[in-house]
C-alpha cells in the first residue's frame, strides 16, 4: 500500500479528472455549463481543491522576441477539500461565466486562425502532482460585434488572421490583461492601406470598437498607423448602417492623408 501511495504521489495510479461540457458554443457574457468527473485511483487520496477557469494562449512581446503564454483569466472554485476513496467517482456540476471581453474564436461556423481558448480544470491533490485538463470552447460574437464584422465583409475586406496580445488598449474599458486583434486585408478601393486590425472591448452595456490601420509606404513617405475608436451599445446598434459608417470614415481618413 505504501508503494502504491508513493506511485500515486508521482502521478501513477492516482486520481484522474475529466471535464464534460454541456455545450461548447458560447458568447461573451454567457455561461458555459459542464460537469467535472474525478475518478479515484488505486489508493484513497486527499483532494485539497477543485476549480475550473478560462485560459487563453496569448502573444507576449519581449525586448528582442515574441513568445506564447497561457493566461488563466477567470477562475471558479468548486467546493472544498475532501477525501476521494480508491476507485470512487466524484461528479461536480458547474456554470462558468464567460467575461464580456472574452475574444471571439468562431465566426459563421469558421474557427479563427490563431485563437486558442478553453476551460481549464485543476485538481489539487495533497502530496501529489496536480492534475489539470483543458477543453476548447467556441466563442461566437455578440450581435453587435457580428454587425461590425459583417460590415467589413460587405465592404470587401478579407479575413487575414487573429491573435491575442498581452497588454492594454488605452482609453477603453478593458479589464483583462490581454486583448484580441482581428486582422483584415482591404479591398482595392482602399489601396493605401496594408491591413486593418479590429478590436472589441465589451462590458454588459456597450463595447469599444478600436480600429488600427496600417498605411502603405509611399514614394516620399514612410508607412504609419492610424487609430480610431468608437462606442457601440450592445442593444441599440440596429439603427446604424455600419458598412456605410465605416466606408465614410475610411474614405475621410484616407483622403485627408492622400491614401486613396
Automatic annotation (TrEMBL):
A UniProt-annotated Pfam family: Spo0M
InterPro entries registered for this protein in UniProt: Spore_0_M
Record's protein name: Sporulation protein
Taxon lineage: Bacteria, Bacillati, Actinomycetota, Actinomycetes, Kitasatosporales
Amino acid at each position: 500500500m505504501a508503494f502504491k501511495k508513493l506511485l500515486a504521489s508521482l502521478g501513477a495510479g492516482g486520481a484522474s479528472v475529466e471535464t464534460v461540457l454541456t455545450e461548447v458554443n458560447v458568447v461573451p457574457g454567457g455561461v458555459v455549463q459542464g460537469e467535472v468527473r474525478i475518478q479515484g485511483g488505486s489508493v484513497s487520496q486527499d483532494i485539497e481543491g477543485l476549480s475550473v477557469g478560462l485560459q487563453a494562449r496569448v502573444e507576449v512581446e519581449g525586448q528582442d522576441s515574441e513568445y506564447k503564454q497561457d493566461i488563466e483569466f477567470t477562475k471558479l472554485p468548486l467546493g472544498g477539500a475532501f477525501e476521494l476513496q480508491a476507485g470512487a467517482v466524484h461528479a461536480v456540476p458547474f456554470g462558468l461565466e464567460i467575461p464580456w471581453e472574452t475574444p471571439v474564436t468562431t465566426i459563421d461556423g469558421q474557427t479563427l486562425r490563431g485563437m486558442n481558448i478553453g476551460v481549464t480544470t485543476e485538481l489539487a491533490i495533497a502530496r501529489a502532482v496536480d492534475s489539470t485538463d483543458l477543453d476548447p470552447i467556441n466563442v461566437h460574437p455578440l450581435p453587435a460585434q457580428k454587425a461590425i464584422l459583417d460590415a467589413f465583409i460587405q465592404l470587401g475586406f478579407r479575413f487575414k488572421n487573429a491573435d491575442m496580445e498581452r497588454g492594454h488598449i488605452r482609453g477603453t474599458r478593458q479589464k483583462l490583461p490581454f486583448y484580441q486583434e482581428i486582422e483584415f486585408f482591404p479591398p482595392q478601393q482602399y489601396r493605401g492601406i496594408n491591413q486593418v486590425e479590429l478590436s472589441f472591448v465589451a462590458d454588459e452595456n456597450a463595447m469599444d470598437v478600436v480600429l488600427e490601420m496600417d498605411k502603405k509606404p509611399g514614394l516620399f513617405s514612410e508607412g504609419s498607423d492610424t487609430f480610431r475608436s468608437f462606442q457601440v451599445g450592445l442593444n441599440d446598434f440596429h439603427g446604424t448602417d455600419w458598412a456605410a459608417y465605416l466606408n465614410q470614415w475610411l474614405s475621410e481618413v484616407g483622403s485627408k492623408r492622400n491614401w486613396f
